[in-house]
């Protein structure tokens, strides 16, 4: 089995409060449009993240998963992980 890293990260705003981030979708394909049979990982965070902080990283890197985001998300506590195609 080989190790794969996410290529892009997409935010899912909170249901009732759009200033917080409850979930993130990590995609493992480099294109920014849906691809058939693409593997995605939906992570629900234990404590909501600040949408402003995450959004600034996302906009700066144009949704591509960078080293700074790897460090940021690596410190967060995961509540649930769903991997799907």
How would you characterize the overall build of this protein?
The chain has helices at residues 51-61, 67-74; strands spanning 8-13, 20-27, 40-50, 78-84. With 85 residues, the chain is an alpha+beta fold. The longest helix has 11 residues, at 51-61. The radius of gyration is 13 Å and the shape is globular. A four-stranded antiparallel β-sheet has the order 1-2-3-4. It contains two helices and four strands.
Output the keywords.
alpha+beta, about 20% helix
Per-chain topology:
Elements: E1 8-13, E2 20-27, E3 40-50, H1 51-61, H2 67-74, E4 78-84
Antiparallel strand pairs: 1-2, 2-3, 3-4
Looking across the biggest beta sheet, what order are the strands in? 1-2-3-4
Strand content: 35-45%
Helix content: 10-25%
Basic shape: globular
Element-level helix/strand string: EEEHHE
In short:
The chain is of the alpha+beta class and 85 residues long. Helix content is 22%, strand content 38%.
